[in-house]
Amino acid sequence: MKMRGADLLARTLAAAGTRHVFALSGNHVMPIFDAALDAKLSLVHVRHEAATVHMADAWGRLTGEAGIALVTGGPGHANAVGALYTALAAQSPVVLISGHAPLDELGKGAFQEMRQADIAAPLCKASWTAQSAARLGDDVARALRIARSGIPGPVHLSVPNDVLDATVDASFPRDFTVETPVEGKVDLSSAKRPLVILGPAAMREKRSYPVPAIGMESPRGINDPSLGKVADVLKRADAVALVGKSRDFTLKFGQAFAPDCRVQQIESGEVVGASSSEWAEEVRAALAWRPAEWRTVKSGGEGPVHPVELCREVQKLMGKNAVLVSDGGEFGQWAQACLGAPERVINGPAGSIGAALPFAAAAKLARPDATVVAMLGDGTFGFHTAELDTAVRYGLSYIAVIGNDACWNAEYQIQLRAYGKDRAHGLDLLPTRYGAVAAAFGCHGEDVSKPADLSNALERAIKSGKPACVNVAIERLAAPKY
C-alpha cells in the first residue's frame, strides 16, 4: 500500500506496541506528528529535548519496553543527545528518533544540517541515518530490536525530511524479535563466601540466585550509602560472579575484591553454588546497616530540616506499589540511603543530575496507580523545572520533594575537602520558594522551613490529586559516608 515515510514510521511503532512517544515538536518531525494521528500513537509533548530521552529512559527501565524519544533535528537533536549517556550507563532500552536535514540538501548548507548519527554514536549501541522511505519501517524495527537485545541500551535513528515526506509502496514490519543476552554459566560451588554482583539491567530481571546477590547501580559504587557496608563483604568474598556488570570504576577496577578472590563475568545466565546461612546473614546485615543515630536524629525546632528526618517522613508515603525516583547529588544520596520502595529509578552509574522530574512523569505513566515520589536537590530542580507544566497537562500526579540547601552542595563538599573552607566559593544558590514556583505552573506547591510543618505538608500534597512539589529547607550536609 502507498504511504509516506512518516506513516510507515508511526505505524511501525504502533505495530510494535508502543504506548507513548515522548516528543518535542520542531520543523523536521512535523510529518511524524501528523502521522501519529492515524497510527493512534500517544504523543507526550514535553518542554525540553533532553526530557524526552529521560522519560523514555525511565519508561524503559520500569516496563522493559523500548522507550521512544522523538525530537527535531540540529539543535533539537543536540539537546537530546546528552541524556543518552544516563540511559547507556543504566543499560536502559531507549530509541531516540531525530528529524534531519533532507538527504538531497546535505553538503549544501541545509537548514540545521548536522552529522547527527556521528554525534550520538559514542552514547549508543547503534546510530545511523535512514536512507529511504521504503526501508524506514525496517530501520525502526531494527532500532527497537537492538535497544532491547542482549544488554539493553539506547539506539539513535535520524530521519531526513525527504525520507519522511516521500510516498512509497511499503508494508510495515511485524517481526520485532529480541535477541536474548549471551548466556553463560558460573560455578561458585567450591566457594565459602560467594557473591553475585548485578549490573542495572540484571537487577531489573529480578532473578533469584542460590548465593547472595548485590545490585549495583550507583555512581558511588562500593561507597554507595544505600548499600550500607558493602565494601566489607566484597573484600571478604572468595568468589564473585559479575552478571551484566564489568570491573569498572564502581568496583575500583577490581580492587574492591581481595587479591585471591576468583571473579568471573557473564552477560546473563546461570549461577551454580550455595552459601552458608552465616555468610548470607553477614551480607544481608552489611547491606542493611545504617548508623544507629539515624533512628533518633532530630532537627532544630526552627529548622532547617536534617535530611534523615525529612526522609523518615517521606518513607511514610511509600506503600506497596510506590516508586521512588531519586536524583544525584548530596541530597540524592541521603534519599537513596534512607528510603525504600518496591521500585526505584535513580540517576544511575552515569552520575548525572537533573532527570528526576522527567523520570517521575514517565514513572507515573508507567505505574498510574502507584505513589510516585521524586527526591531531588534545589540545584537539580533547575534543570527541568518546566516539566512541571508537562505533568499538569497530562495529569501526572507525582510528588516532588526538594531538599533545598541553597547550594550546589556536592561540589561545595569537594571544595571543603580539597581546598578548605576559605576557598569554597561560587556555589551558593538562592533559597527560592520552589513550592510557589510549582504552584504557578498549576501544581500543588508547599514551602516548608520547620520540621513540625513537614508531615502536614506531605499529607496535603498526597491529597491534592495534582502533581505536587514540597520544597524543604534542609541542613547543608555532606552525603552519608560509612
What do these coordinates show?
The protein is α/β, with parallel strands linked by helices and 482 residues long. 35% of the residues lie in helices and 20% in strands. It is built from 18 helices and 20 strands. Helix 3 crosses helix 13. It is globular. It starts with a strand and ends in a 9-residue tail after the last strand.
SSE topology sketch:
Layout: E1 2-4, H1 5-15, E2 21-23, H2 30-39, E3 43-45, H3 49-63, E4 67-71, H4 75-89, E5 94-100, H5 116-120, E6 126-129, H6 136-148, E7 154-160, H7 161-165, E8 167-169, E9 183-187, E10 194-198, H8 200-205, E11 213-215, H9 230-236, E12 239-243, E13 262-266, E14 268-272, H10 277-288, H11 307-315, E15 323-326, H12 329-338, E16 343-346, H13 356-366, E17 372-377, H14 378-381, H15 387-393, E18 399-404, H16 409-419, H17 434-440, E19 444-448, H18 454-463, E20 468-473
Parallel strand pairs: 2-3, 2-4, 4-5, 5-7, 6-7, 9-14, 10-11, 10-12, 12-13, 15-16, 15-17, 17-18, 18-20, 19-20
Antiparallel strand pairs: 1-8
Helix pairs in contact: 1-2, 1-6, 3-4, 3-13, 11-12
Task: Provide key terms for this protein.
3 domains, Rossmann fold, 482 residues, alpha/beta, 35% helix, 18 helices, six-stranded parallel sheet, 20 strands, single chain
In brief:
The chain is of the alpha/beta class and 482 residues long. It is built from 18 helices and 20 strands.
Strand order of the largest sheet: 3-2-4-5-7-6
Q: Strand portion, in percent?
A: 15-25%
Structural class, by secondary structure, is alpha/beta
- Identify the CATH homologous superfamily of the largest domain: Thiamin diphosphate (ThDP)-binding fold, Pyr/PP domains
Helix content: 25-40%
Tally of separate domains: 3
Oligomer: single chain
